[in-house]
Amino acid sequence: MKLAVTDANIFIDLIRIDCLHYLFELKIELHTTTEVLNELHSYQEEEVRKYHAKELLIIAHGAALEKSLSRNISKKLAEADKSVIYYAKHLGAGILTGDYNLKKFIEKEIEVHGILWVVDQFVEQKLISENHAHLSLSSLMKLNKRLPKKECEKLLKKWKVP
Questions:
Q1: Are 147 and 116 in contact (CB under 8 A)?
Q2: For 59-74, how does the pLDDT look when each residue is reduced to its tens digit (9 = 90+)?
Q3: Closest residue by Cα to residue 38 from 98, 84, 105
């Protein structure tokens, strides 16, 4: 994935484990929408906007995007999710999200990855050590009870701390 539209929960999880800065070091051009930013708490939005100011994140104005899409998307999805789908389709990009409904709705059409893939990419691209990844994921598992336990355990085993 060379181009991705990021959903709010990826930003939230990375901020919670103090790893947001690594996201912007990945070899991926990152985008999001204003609707996604509106889902963040003000301090989280401030953190994310710092990367926009450094020209490492492109923010699309999602309201205009959503109008053209709203009648074609599942009512189970939030407006921010709809904006992410439309923008990703418009760009020919993948999506980074931990939202189950969003993933299930679009995964047959668009490449979709979650927080576990993101942290694994940090290791693959040598931004963090396996030990750091293990500690970060262990912390995240305590904070985010929605993470898939089996997949987490598989990664923790992969990054086994000596």
A1: yes
A2: 998 655 555 555 566 6
A3: 84
